[in-house]
Amino acid sequence: MTQSANYLAEVRMLIAKLTDNFVDSSTVMPETSLSALGVDSLTTVNLMVSLAETADVDLEDYFDEIETPATVGDLCRIAGLFADGKASSSCT
């Protein structure tokens, strides 16, 4: 499994957890919009906090480097940024 695929699996798991398994994680793809999954702004913040905690980084250190995610792929890129400092990481 590639490192990028690990981010997709992690993001899928977090979305399922934070939506109380309302979302079938096997159908979540990088291009899936968060709004289509019923993820609101508060849940988006919780997802980003969870990703930061998993990577053991301080979310505040990345405020200038990240934009509000709109898709699952955006969350994967943020997970990659947190994990290894590369903004170009993705889910593909």
Short characterization:
The protein has 92 residues and is mostly helical. It has helices spanning 3-18, 41-55, 72-84.
What topology emerges from the helices and strands here?
Layout: H1 3-18, H2 41-55, H3 72-84
Features:
92 residues; mainly alpha; 48% helix
3D architecture notes:
This protein has helices spanning 3-18, 41-55, 72-84. The protein is an all-alpha fold and 92 residues long. The chain is 48% helix and 0% strand. The chain starts with a helix and ends in an 8-residue tail after the last helix.
Q: List the quaternary state of the chains.
A: single chain
The percentage of residues in β strands lies in under 5%
Structural class: mainly alpha
Mean pLDDT: 86
- How is the main sheet built? none
Please give the count of helices: 3
* Helix-strand pattern: HHH
Query: Which percent bin holds the helix content?
Result: 40-55%
What's the end-to-end separation, in Å? 11 Å
The coarse overall form would be: globular
Radius of gyration over all CA atoms, rounded: 12 Å
Number of beta-strand segments: 0
* Poorly predicted sequence stretches spanning 5 or more consecutive residues: none
